[in-house]
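Field reference: "sequence" (input) and "structure" (output). Example, Mor transcription activator family:
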Amino acid sequence: MKYLKAQNVLPKEVITIIQEFIDGEFIYIPRKDGQQRAWGEKSGARNSLKERNRQIYAEYIKGVPINSLISKYYLSEQSIRRIISMEKGLCSKSIHSRL
């Protein structure tokens, strides 16, 4: 989220009305209904984590021990196991949808 100067994007009349309620403070204006973005969508973090999780699962399938995955990805055993379980579920759903 970036900050914009009100005087650069709003009409002077609107700024005057807003100043009656909030004078010189920061205000967050939410997106319109239906226009919200999911976490990490804009920055690419969501896709980056999806790819990391796929890689973890692929390595696990190839026989890489969980302790090695913990060290390589700096995650807890619980996190690695959760990722493996989630990816395993996604793979089985993908296979069933093809049948």
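Residues 77-98 form the longest helix (22 residues).
The two ends are 43 Å apart (CA to CA).
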